[in-house]
Amino acid sequence: MTYFDVFQIMLVTSPSEVLKEHIADVRSQLVSHPLYAKINSLEDIQKFMSTHVFAVWDFMSLLKSLQRNLTCVAIPWRPVADANTSYLINEIVLGEESDVDEKGTRTSHFQLYLKAMHQVGADDTLLKALFEKLDSGNSVKEAISTIGINQATQNFLNFTFDIIEDNKPHVLAAVFTYGREDLIPDMFLSIVKDLEAKFPAQLSVFKYYLERHIEVDGEHHSILAYEMTESLCKTEEQWEEATTASRKALELRVALWDSVLETISR
Fold first, then answer.
1. Which among 66, 83, 93, 89 is positioned nearest to 224, based on CA atoms?
2. Global pTM?
3. 29-39 pLDDT, tens per residue?
4. What CA–CA distance (Å, rounded) separates 130 from 177?
């Protein structure tokens, strides 16, 4: 059954609702993933963060790729065709690159995550190795394949950078909006809060990161991202490409969570 067969069956007028229907089962798998219930110690949090940080990092590359496409970052500057989409992505970039930490100091969400990792004692050796490879002139694909991360993480990252390389703004926007939502269920936040009550000196920053993520990304950025995607998907073919890519991104996130669960369960 094709995307538009479903569209006809559902008799809906919004392609975005059809997209959501196509990815609903995978999103449900993420929200109810058994990984969350297995996290019950500082060591489990450390293992989770050591893998999840790669998803936090490549999300920023996805974000900047959208900004590059939807705004003018070249010199000399030229006006862009759609100032509204420029506003939408610039607003998101502003929050992701220059939010505030728990003390009110300006920081990116990625840097805040690193701060949380260091506080809890999570291993960032592989992340540092990735950055060293990139700084030495290796391509992203070369770096990903040689630093020793597991296959699920490699697949996740490679998909993101394949999407970036394909450089289709409507697909980038859809993956960013529907396929890369960090679906943090209430259960997971409750687990972290319970652990933080026991270990405040190790988990206060991570708890703040999760709460801030839900507050900013869930309540503000998601609305902007939905509007951005809808403005870029102008044809049936573009909506179908957006749907396929969003579903694939979520499936790879499920596989990533499976790999973390396996590590925690050892």
1. 89
2. 0.91
3. 988 999 998 99
4. 26
Any bridge partners for residue 99, and if so which?
107
- The full DSSP string for 109-145 is HHHHHHHHHHHHT---HHHHHHHHHHHTT--HHHHHH
Locate the DSSP E strands across 37-177.
99-100, 106-107
CA distance 83 to 239: 22
Cα 234 to Cα 238: distance, rounded to the nearest angstrom? 7
Q: What number of helices (H) and strands (E) belong to the chain?
A: 14, 2
Token pair for 91: 């607003």
Distance of CA 231 to the CA centre of its chain: 21
252 exposed, middle or buried (CB, 10 Å; 0-12, 13-18, 19+)?
buried
Q: What is the mean pLDDT of the chain?
A: 91
Which amino acid appears at position 178 of this protein? Y
Least Cα distance to 96 among 134, 121, 67 occurs for 67
